[in-house]
Amino acid sequence: MTERQQTFFGWKVAWFAFAVAVFSWGVGFYGPSVFLHTLHADRGWSISSISAAITTHFLLSAAMVIYLPDARRFGLAWLTLTGVGFSVVGMLAWANSQYPWQLYVAALVSGAGWAATSGAAINAMVAPWFDRDRPRALSIAYNGASVGGAVFAPLWVALIAQIGFVGAAAVISTVMAVMLAPLVFRFLSPVPRDLGSHLDGAVQEGAERPALKVTLSRRELLRERRFLTISGAFALGLFAQIGIFAHLITRLAPILGESGAAWALSLTTVCAVIGRTLLGWFMGERDRRLTASLNFALQASGVVLLVLGNGSAVLLLGCVLFGLGVGNLISLPPLIAQKEFERGDVPTVVALVTAINQAVFAFAPAIFGAVRDLTGAYAVSFALAACMQLAAIPIVLKGGRR
Prior knowledge:
mainly alpha, Growth Hormone, Chain: A, 79% helix, globular
């Protein structure tokens, strides 16, 4: 990497996207797993009712994500700042809910914040600055998601034990606002042409890159085999993943204890950092769909151990294998889209894939919770997750270039 590339502003943007992802996933993705366990244990509300509120959180986000490319006309910085604000208010609303129905109001607010600061939004921050180096840049940015889980899962549990749910939410919301709000415009307002930069920090390009053209509408994408196989496979994989994460602490707590379960979740996300980093460094020109299929198989093997395990060693090994593939389910769809679609279509493809996937996986927490309440255990729910991950393999392999 040349000196110019090392000082390229795009890398600063990628690291700021990392910081956004730390808080976004720590609050909007891994937080609900802790919320579920805390509200069930402290307030006696049923797992199925809390899970349904978590589903509302993800479902509203799915409805909003599809319009992110349109909302960017207001400016990515303003959009991100609004997302941070909704996340903060939503977090406080979850903690201060006195009745189960109030969780659904909180979910509407937190879901809006998650939509504006999660997968498609992170891609939108990084994509204008990178082409060849996009796998590495996205690896940096999305690693914030895993770091968010590694830091926030035990942090939530520790703070709740010390100062209660309301106090913990107040502390974390304050830190999130203070850390992110002052930096949003510094890193997200500039675009490459404002700084005289080229993609990837290149010194020059042979010819001026033409303006991006959108060649496929959303309706046309819904008839595209390439698009359908990306969305279908990752919808199944993410349904399994979100269901497991929403219930992982409650599944592990009887064996590992509350603190041990939180640290197991943290271990899972540390493994996600490792898996995503390896993907970013070694992906190169390798077949991205084949990589995705191997990722699904790896995760399924881990989930099988979570189904069968009754001891800490087996359960922790399951967390490791499952975790190694966690981050790649977020990173791979944009990378596959980058290879298979025109540059002008990629933002729409990523946003639409994210929206459809979230609309599907939004139901995972509620379905997992309902099955658990019906059966009295998590074996059936987690076995369903493993089956869905295996079913995703032939789907993702059927796509590809026309």
